[in-house]
């Protein structure tokens, strides 16, 4: 479990995190969302004892990181995948970590296997691709078999295979009963990974709710229709009380079911190439939630 108690972090000229209280629970994936600069990395760094809160407390299993007796066995983190010794092999990097934390060296081969780096274990980390570096960072996070995991943007820069692999791993770590806290600035990513969503903007908590509730509450869930000529259909649906947005070669329809739209198109003899449920509503809800909080670097 991770507990934030009214945590604040002020850098000289900026408030990065503002009075943030939160409990991240075991057995589920908690997605930590917010626009760039919202304070996600700073919050995670405070959990990991790398930044000191200006106010409040960040606790892992009830204690500040600095007071954990065996920190790597309590919490593992992927914060900056590039923070590796480039001249060391993957295996030696993990061995050094194990030795300095009184972790049996046999764990090294176990975690290399989990992240799929067994073959590359003898190669210098400096020669690794971004995805391999990410895997090595995850191996380091897992080496102490911790109950709490913190991943900062773990799919950033990964190819589609890597993204799928990280998603699966994150889900299975939560299924094993661990606390998994994962940041992203992409709602679409969290939609397929998270059980619980925590959204921040400008360092403040905007939402903390189960994904299912956010989905249910997101208004605008609707229907997408694609076809060569949709004007007639758009007019008929609007006359019937639906809200219809013309998006060029497609319509976004809210307030009518798939069946309603299908029947209407059939009645009018309108040719359709696509008739599908629209999933964009969650992205919309997130954009709405964070719209006020987006920081435009150049305008401050
Ligand atoms: N060491 C630092 N010194 C000064 N300001 C900092 C420092 N670290 C972060 N900040 C500022 O704190 C705010 C929050 O940054 P943070 O990196 O935590 O956001 P984030 O949500 O992780 O963003 P991103 O998605 O871009 O990584 C930003 O305004 C940032 O410029």
From TrEMBL:
Similarity comment: Belongs to the ABC transporter superfamily.
* Record bears the keyword Endoplasmic reticulum: no
- InterPro entries, A to Z: AAA+_ATPase, ABC_transporter-like_ATP-bd, P-loop_NTPase
- A Pfam family it matches: ABC_tran
- Which source organism? Yinghuangia aomiensis
The record's keywords, sorted A to Z, are: ATP-binding, Nucleotide-binding, Transport
Task: Report the SUPFAM superfamilies cross-referenced here.
Answer: P-loop containing nucleoside triphosphate hydrolases (SSF52540)
Domain ABC transporter positions: 2-227
Q: What is this protein called?
A: ATP-binding cassette domain-containing protein
Q: Which domain of life is it from?
A: Bacteria
Q: Which GO terms describe its molecular function?
A: ATP binding
């Amino acid at each position: 479990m991770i507990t934030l108690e009214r945590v604040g972090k002020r850098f000289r000229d900026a408030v990065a995190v503002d009075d943030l209280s939160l409990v991240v629970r075991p057995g589920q994936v908690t997605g930590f969302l917010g626009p760039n600069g919202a304070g996600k990395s700073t919050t995670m760094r405070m959990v990991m004892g790398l930044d000191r809160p200006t106010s409040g407390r960040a606790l892992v299993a009830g204690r500040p990181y600095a007071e954990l007796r065996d920190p790597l066995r309590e919490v593992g983190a992927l914060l900056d995948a590039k923070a590796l010794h480039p001249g060391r092999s993957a295996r030696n990097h993990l061995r050094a970590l194990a030795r300095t934390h009184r972790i049996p060296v046999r764990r090294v081969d176990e975690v290399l296997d989990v992240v799929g780096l067994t073959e590359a274990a003898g190669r210098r980390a400096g020669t690794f691709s971004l995805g391999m570096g990410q895997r090595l960072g995850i191996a380091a996070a897992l080496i102490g078999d911790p109950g709490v995991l913190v991943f900062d943007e773990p799919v950033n820069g990964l190819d589609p295979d890597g993204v799928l692999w990280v998603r699966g791993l994150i889900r299975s770590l939560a299924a094993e009963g661990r606390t998994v806290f994962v940041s992203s600035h992409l709602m679409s990513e969290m939609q397929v990974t998270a059980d619980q969503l925590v959204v921040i903007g400008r360092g403040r908590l905007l939402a903390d709710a189960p994904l299912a509730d956010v989905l249910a509450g997101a208004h605008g869930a609707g229907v997408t229709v694609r076809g060569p000529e949709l004007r007639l259909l758009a007019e008929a649906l609007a006359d019937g009380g639906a809200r219809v947005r013309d998006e060029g070669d497609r319509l976004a329809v809210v307030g009518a079911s798939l069946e309603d739209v299908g029947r209407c198109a059939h009645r009018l003899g309108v040719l359709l190439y696509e008739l599908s449920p629209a999933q964009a509503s969650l992205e919309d809800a997130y954009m709405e939630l964070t719209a006020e909080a987006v920081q435009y670097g150049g305008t401050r």
